[in-house]
Amino acid sequence: MSVDQQISGSADIPPRCRAAVLIGRGEIRMEERPVPTPEPDEVLIKVVSVGVCARMCTTTAEGRIGDFVVRPGRWYSGTEVSGHIVAVARPSRTPDSASGWRSSHSGPVASARSVRPGDTNLCPDMRFYATPPIDGAFCDYVTIQSAFAHRIPDSVSYEVAGPAGAALGGVSGPARKAQIVPGSRS
Fold first, then answer.
1. Which of 35, 147, 159, 173 has its CA 20 to 30 A from that of 83?
2. Do 48 and 66 meet the contact criterion of CB atoms below 8 Å apart?
3. Which tens digits make up the pLDDT trace of 90-136?
4. Domain 3-174, what architecture?
5. Which runs of E-coded beta strand occur in the chain?
6. What CA–CA distance (Å, rounded) separates 104 from 131?
7. Which carries the bigger pLDDT value, residue 5 or residue 21?
8. What are the φ and ψ backbone dihedral angles of 120, each rounded to 5 degrees?
9. pTM, entire model
10. Domains of the chain, residue spans
């Protein structure tokens, strides 16, 4: 079976896309890069909105974050993503009908397949956008593990969906473990 046969919804996806690439300390340039091909259990998202955190500003301005020195030619900005799912790789936990969903993502892009969603804080192999060696999401297309693609309602804007996802991700696992539910006061 070819890769195209393993990916539903893959029609009309260009072979190349734009990406914001860090050229050197404080210098970013738009370049063309290949559109990523989703691996099994990943989705391809056409990016509409991307958020930036303080870590990204430091990385761009200083050319480093902590002990890590940025390699020029990678795109290291963009962590909170929203857009459209345009392809679903098989096998996947996401239904074929997910192609076209409005999706939000903030948090891991992948973790060990054996770690259950919601317990990713326990995963030693967790990966995030813009955390080396994973590129950031300031590009036209990104891939993520299907468990981390969250459908967003039409009433939520793309610009709100990414940062809201970050806020929810920050409290969802700890809140579940602490048995905090809607309406909790303590």
1. 173
2. no
3. 776 666 666 777 777 666 777 766 666 666 667 777 777 777 677 88
4. Alpha-Beta Complex (3.90)
5. 7-8, 16-24, 27-34, 42-51, 64-65, 68-69, 80-89, 102-105, 108-110, 127-128, 141-145, 150-151
6. 19
7. 21
8. -65, -20
9. 0.76
10. 3-174
